[in-house]
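User: Second chain of the day. Same drill as before.
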Amino acid sequence: MFGRKSSIEIKNPVQFERMRAAGLVVADTLQLLRESVAAGMTTDDLDAIARESIASAGASPSFLGYHGFPAVICTSVNDEIVHGIPGQRVINDGDVVSIDCGAIIDGWHGDAALSVVVGEADPEVSRLLEVTETALWRGIAKARVGGRLSDIGHAVEAHVRASGDYGVVEEYVGHGIGTSMHMEPSVPNYGQPGNGPKLEVGMALAIEPMVNLGGRHTKTLDDEWTVVTVDGRWSAHFEHTVAITAEGPWVLTAHDGGAERLAALGVPTPAAPER
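Assistant: Same format as last time:
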């Protein structure tokens, strides 16, 4: 409607620092989980590790109780794309485990995800993870003032399409983030560039490509949470929370703020002090 104000939450530098604190809790927790996951563990074991990590940092989990979700993290294994519920499933050698984690400090959220192969990896699966993570960083590189929201998804999709015959999930997308975990705008991982809201200083986005070895289509299991591939092929999921600043994208859930990966793409990042 003409004259309607944007519903996208704009943050000031102090608020971004609070989100950074939450983002570092997520980064630390995911790093710990990456180092801890091993064959023979259950997905519930991972949830217990995450629960302790978040609590010891003085943060609260974003996911626990969210629309009734019963755990601290999402653990999605092999053909599970997203929203897997930790439980008694035993992790086996060669499995792909996608871990999604969120934390809250002083009312501000951080949200990130990664996928890992446990033990020896099948080359096709290793390639899937590499393509998905690189696509994430190509999308982050477009989270810059003056661009449009759809530039992000286009960069993600273009990299995936150029890398092979993969399925880019369309039903589940990234999102705005800040005082709530899920906010406007939605951030698809596909589409044409030059569309959607202009990217402005103060926006924060959770960018999260989900890519399948087979087709893009999904279905939800009877637990009403776990999303799997229709064809049973395996999937990968990577995510970061990104602040849009005048100096460039600041990856709040990466320990170095995204400096190393973005520098390799020729993208400047804020000269913010790192922990």
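The domain at 13-264 is CATH 3.90.230.10 (Creatine Amidinohydrolase).

User: Great, on to the next one.
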